[in-house]
Amino acid sequence: MKQGMISFEGYEVQKIEFNKNPKYQHNEDGIRLNFTLKEGHELENDGKKLVLGLGVSLFSKAEENNYPFSLNVEIVGTFESEDKQIENYIPNAVAILFPYLRTAISNITLTANVPPLILPTINVNDYLSQNNEKMEVK
Predict the structure, then answer these.
(1) CA pair distance 51, 14, nearest whole angstrom
(2) Which is nearest to 138 in space by CA: 42, 44, 43, 55?
(3) Which pLDDT tens digit goes with each residue over 42-78?
(4) Do residues 105 and 33 touch, judged by C-beta distance below 8 A?
(5) Residues contacting residue 45 through CB under 8 Å, at least 6 positions apart
(6) How far apart are CA 8 and CA 17, in angstroms?
(7) Residues of the chain by 3-state class (helix, strand, coil), percent to 5
């Protein structure tokens, strides 16, 4: 591995919570996507290993807001580098991990027999810098 690069070692799904809203009333106008994204990270191995968590909460307070379901998903990815300044690569790691979170959400909603939900492509680092939601990395 060349210095100044990171390698993605893989990810794991840490949490899935899906709750269908039995009181949901179909709305002809559709549903506005409502989600919160959060991030957390830890450095290990003398700053050469990054453990990064990304989570999303979709349609919280489903019954109160007449959403069809609520969904919380958290994934944790591991990244390594020979560079002891791996924290400089956190934005890159977030961008690498986000598509895995999007795919997990699509698969969960498809399997739950609700219309598959695909999170929009966003600049996740800009979103996180504006919303600053944190999560614990386990």
Answers:
(1) 13
(2) 42
(3) 999 888 999 999 999 999 999 999 999 999 999 999 9
(4) no
(5) 80
(6) 26
(7) 30, 35, 40
pTM of this structure: 0.85
Rounded CA gap, 19 and 16, in Å? 10
2-31 residue pLDDT tens: 445 889 999 999 999 999 999 999 888 778
> In degrees to the nearest 10, what's the CA dihedral of 23, 133, 113, 108?
-150
- What's the burial of 46, exposed, middle or buried (CB within 10 Å: 0-12/13-18/19+)? exposed
Could you tell me the two tokens for 53? Answer: 């968590």
Cα dist. 50→67, 85, 131 in Å? 36, 10, 22
